[in-house]
Amino acid sequence: MVELSEFTVILIKELKSIIRDPKILIAMIIVPIVITSVMYLLITQSMKQSITEITRETGTIAVLDLDQSEWSFNLINYLKEKGYTIIETCCIEDIVENIRSNRIDYGLVVLKDFSKNISENKQGLIEIYLSIRSSSMFSIYRDLRLFYSLNDYNRNLSKVIVEKYGLNSSYLFNPVLSYNNIIYKDIQIKLENPVILSTLISSTSFIYPVLVLILSSFLVQLSATSIGVEKEEKMFETLLSLPISRFKLIIVKITASILISLIGLIIYAGLFTWLLSSLINIPSVEQSVDTTVSIDLNELTNLLSKIYGLHDILLVIVCTGVFIILILSLSIITALFTEDVRSAQLTTQYLIIPVMFTMFIAIFTDISSIPIIVKYVLSIIPIANISLIQQFIFSKDYVLVYIVLLSTTIYALVSIYIASKLVSTERVLTFKIFRKKRR
C-alpha cells in the first residue's frame, strides 16, 4: 500500500504540473483544441453556405433559339422553372463576349431541327457556353450548374420518350441487374453495390494509420514538453530525489501523458464527430447524379462486424496501447538529453517523422502480395510493424499479429528500462544533445 500510495502521489503531482504549467496547458492542449474547433466551424459553415449556393440552380443564361418549336420551348421553360434568368440573344458572338465580361453566367444555343430530331427519335443538338472563373472546387461546381441541369433535363426527357412508347424505363436504362456475392475468408456477403464494402474497408485501412500518427504525435510532444519544462525550471532534480524507483517514475510519466491525452482525444473525437455529422447534413453538390448509393449506420455496423470481430478490435486496441507506451518511452529518452522546452520539442521530430513515414507507407502497401518471409521481418521492425497491424488483422494472420504484439511489448519494456537507467544516473542532469552557444 505504501508503494502504491507513493506511485499515486507522484502521478497526481505529475498531472497537476502538466495541467498548471501554461507552456503545456495552453500551447499543447487549449490552443490546439480552440484552433481545431474554430477550423471545424469555419469548414462546416463555409461548405454549407457554398454548397447551398451551388445547389440553388440560379444564374443568367443567354439563349439563342434557332429552332423555335415545341421541344426548344420546353427546354427553356424547364430552365426558367429551375430558377435561371433567361435572356434572348441574336448571335453566338454576343454570348461569348458577355461571358468574358462576366455580364452573364452561361450561354445556350438550341440548334435548328432540335424538336424535329427528337420527334423522329434522333438526338437533338444544343451548344453550351460557360467559363471557369476560379480553380477552387466550389467555384468549378458553380460554373458547371447549367451542365448538371441539362443532364437532369436529358434524363427526364428520356423517361418521357420511353414511357411514350410503352417501354420499361428501368429495363431500358439498366437491362442487367447484378447481385454481388463478396467472399471474405469463410464469410459470404451479399451486396447490390460492392463499392460500399470496398470503400468501407479502404477507409478503415486509411483512418487507422492516420489516427495512430495524430495520437502518437500529440503524446510525444506532450511528454517531451513536460520533461523540458521540468529541466528548464530545475524541477527535475527535485523529482529525482523523491523516494520512488526510477522504473516507477518512468511509468508515472507515461501514465500521466496517456491520461492527459485521453482527455484531449475525447475532445478531438467529439469535435471530429460533430464535423462529420455537420458534413453529412450538407446537401449534395453533384446534382447530375440521380442514383446515389445510400446506406444507414446499422448496415455499416453489420458489415464491419462481419469483417472485424470483438477479438480483432481488442487486438487493435492492445497493440495500439503497447505502441503508445513504446513511443512515449522513446520520447522520454530523447527528452532526457535536452535542457529546455525548445530543444525537447525539437527532438520529438526525430520520432514523429519515422512514424509519419511508416504510417503513410502502410496506407499504400498491399501486404497480400508480399512474401511471407518479408511479412515476418516487417512484424518485428518497431513502428513499421504497428502500421501494418490493421492489414494483418484484416487478412486474419493472427500469428503475425501476436508477433507484432510480442515484439512491440519487448521494445517498450526495454525502452522503459533504458529510460529508468538513464534517470538513475547523475549524468542525465549534465549531458545535453542541444547546447546553447556560448557568446
Automatic annotation (TrEMBL):
Membrane topology annotation: Multi-pass membrane protein
Annotated ABC-2 type transporter transmembrane domain residues: 23-419
Subcellular location: Cell membrane
Listed GO MF terms: ABC-type transporter activity
Entry keyword annotation includes DNA repair: no
Record key words, sorted: Cell membrane, Membrane, Transmembrane, Transmembrane helix
One cellular-component annotation, GO: plasma membrane
The protein, known as: ABC transporter permease
Pfam hit, one: ABC2_membrane_3
InterPro entries associated with the record: ABC-2_transporter_component, ABC2_TM
Source organism of the structure: Staphylothermus marinus
Keyword Nucleus: no
Transmembrane segments: 24-43, 250-276, 313-338, 350-378, 398-419
